């Protein structure tokens, strides 16, 4: 399990995650949606330097602090290219990114191995990030629920397929969603109606 620190930020209480391998002085940021000064202060407190920003999707509440943090730190920003099809009203303007990733890509960053799972439905380019035995699920999977599909770019049948794919993962992973509390795949398979 990587070391994981959680910040719930902004009006939508979006979870921004900071994770790194044991002993690593660099880290990855997942979905810094708001309050860049809060995120940067937490990085300073932890003594960590961001090696990359990893985006699960491009909604404004998940990307709002990206440009400021990348500007301050110079770190790359990864995004699934399918997100570029979303209307600007959903992303608060043009999405800022420097690199793309998609299904099957593997990254080694901050002393961890990261596998990218393309899990569309909430948005066309939603991804989940498997980092050892942790899963950063964005707004695809929540504790007891799943992401909405009534916004532009959302599709109910597609997210059902993505959730079925997550349900088929045999190992029990700790799940860190874009909003709300952490959970586990085992709990969600048993109790989450959208995982059945």
Count of discrete alpha- or pi-helical segments spanning 4 or more residues: 6
Cα-atom radius of gyration: 15 Å
Shape: globular
* CATH secondary-structure class: Alpha Beta
Strand order of the largest sheet: 1-2-3-4-5-6
Low-confidence stretches: none
Question: Biggest sheet, open or closed, and with what strands and sense?
Answer: 6 strands, mixed
Q: How many domains?
A: 1
Mean pLDDT: 97
How many DSSP-defined strands?
14
* CATH homology-level superfamily: Ribonuclease Z/Hydroxyacylglutathione hydrolase-like
Supply the CATH architecture.
Answer: 4-Layer Sandwich
Might you state the CATH topology name? Metallo-beta-lactamase, Chain A
Which class best fits the helix and strand makeup? alpha/beta
What fraction of the residues are assigned to beta strands by DSSP? 25-35%
Query: Could you spell the SSE succession in H and E letters?
Result: EEEHEHHEHEEEEEEEHEEH
Oligomer: single chain
Could you tell me how far the N terminus lies from the C terminus, measured between alpha carbons in angstroms?
Answer: 26 Å
